[in-house]
Amino acid sequence: MFSYESIREQLKSVIEKEISAVSKLCETIDESWLKAVLMIRDCKGKLVVSGIGKSGNIGQKIAASFTSTGMPAIFVHPTEASHGDLGLLDNRDILFALSASGQTTELLDIMQYAFQQRISIILVTKNPTSSLAHFANIILQIPNIPEACPNGLAPTTSTTCQLVLGDALVVTVMALRGFSAENFQQFHPGGNLGALLIPVKNFMYKDDRIPLIGLGASIKEAIIEMNSKSLGCVGIVNQRNQYVGIFTDGDLRRSLEAQVSLEEPVSQYMTPSPLRISPEMTVSELINFFKEKTVPNVFVVEKKMPIGIVHVNQLASISGSSDIIN
């Protein structure tokens, strides 16, 4: 029977071996990596990723990551390729093959076809002198170290290295191609990733929903405007419609406690030079803003004029979950 300590040591052993493998992977970065990055960046077609077993699983993730960051990529199962899917490849493409041993027989047909059609081939393998390596234009070598399982057989350290290598290529190519947060949002319109990149201008309250009064208005007029918009504040604008102050429910409470006349000008009790944000601020940036400033709402200002207002409660509805603001 296993003890808690023996289980803990087993878990720790696997993690340490995987960390060591990734550390050794860093040491393998050479000119081949640079060539692979530039080849993928300059690809005029698509990246065709192939592998079998656990390498295939990693390959699917790599293809998905490239596609989601603006580089067209598909995963082709090598057996399906041998039964008709070779037609997916053309000479503008790059074949990206994963085989830890470099001897995967199922990859032979697609590798040979790509070689014959003069399609560029990148191979990720432990063995740079393997049979499949002879077909490759670029070989990316992962550390040839034992797997983390007790029998040294279950793909663990090798697949971790494949995954990390793939992520490194994806992010580097993404950076070289200038793939921005705006581009990322276009490819991720659904879910929290997409929600975090939505600009404020897409969901702010605007036009008649903005609580605004003039600089010469009274506290009584401020209360009426606050109540009609139900956002707990009112923005103050000057004669040029420039945003110059804010009067909040907190300011109102302090005024009432001080028994200030409601006919007094609100400008005497507003907060001058108030916080403001740009309409281009993303949800992700807005979350950090609200956490840092600890305010419930903020006006959106462009060229000194208020064009919208955002309340912290809107963030939960944008993502479909309150987790986004926790």
From TrEMBL:
Swiss-Prot/TrEMBL keywords: CBS domain, Repeat
Gene3D superfamilies, alphabetized: CBS-domain, Glucose-6-phosphate isomerase like protein, domain 1
SUPFAM superfamilies: CBS-domain pair, SIS domain
Domain CBS: 204-264, 270-326
Domain of life: Bacteria
PROSITE patterns according to UniProt: CBS, SIS
InterPro entries: CBS_dom (IPR000644), CBS_dom_sf (IPR046342), GutQ/KpsF_isomerases (IPR050986), KdsD/KpsF-type (IPR004800), SIS_dom (IPR001347), SIS_dom_sf (IPR046348), SIS_Kpsf (IPR035474)
Residue ranges constituting the SIS domain according to the UniProt record: 36-179
Entry annotated with the keyword Cell membrane: no
Family, similarity comment: Belongs to the SIS family. GutQ/KpsF subfamily.
Protein name: SIS domain-containing protein
